[in-house]
Write a structure and sequence with these properties.
single chain; mainly alpha; two-stranded parallel ribbon
Length: 200
Amino acid sequence: MEHPENTQAATKLVEWVDAGYFSKGVNGTGYDPAWQSFTKGEGLFLIAGTWLQADLSAAMGKDVSFFLPPPAQEGGAVHTTGASGQPFAITNKADNPDAAAAYIDFITNSDAMKVIAENEGLPVVEAADQKAPNELGQQIFTAFDQVSTANGLLPYLDWATPTMGDTLGAGLQDLIAKQRTPEQVLQELEQDYSDFTSKG
């Protein structure tokens, strides 16, 4: 966690706070009220998950678009946080591994991806081959295919430890409120990670 890139990113977040880029009362705004306010024109950008695709499209139609975060360096590789949403695995102690494998195949095969796409979800397999029911969905499918086939998909940071979600959430709120410095927040994240990995 204590790398120059992390300090640079956290410092940039504070710069955005100072520049007034965040909505008033951002730390006290819940997830649903945030995206609902966005659909009413309160804000230019919404950093959220693709699971909002159907709601955003229904509320905004062609007045909403999706794009991947820009690369760190112009012309560089694009990376973004994301996942398939289907973290299934079969342990070596499973009583019926073939049945488990058949189920995983059932929820990830081409037919399943078609059903997911038709219902405004994100098909994580063969995303580029799917047809979305709206323009926003098609932008999301194309972007997911681009970043996942280029090995640019990064795991969610809160998956790093069982407590990282709370540590990271509190740290980001402290940064936005300017109650802690980037260095202090990064030290807390490093401590959370070190405490967990030292147990292994």
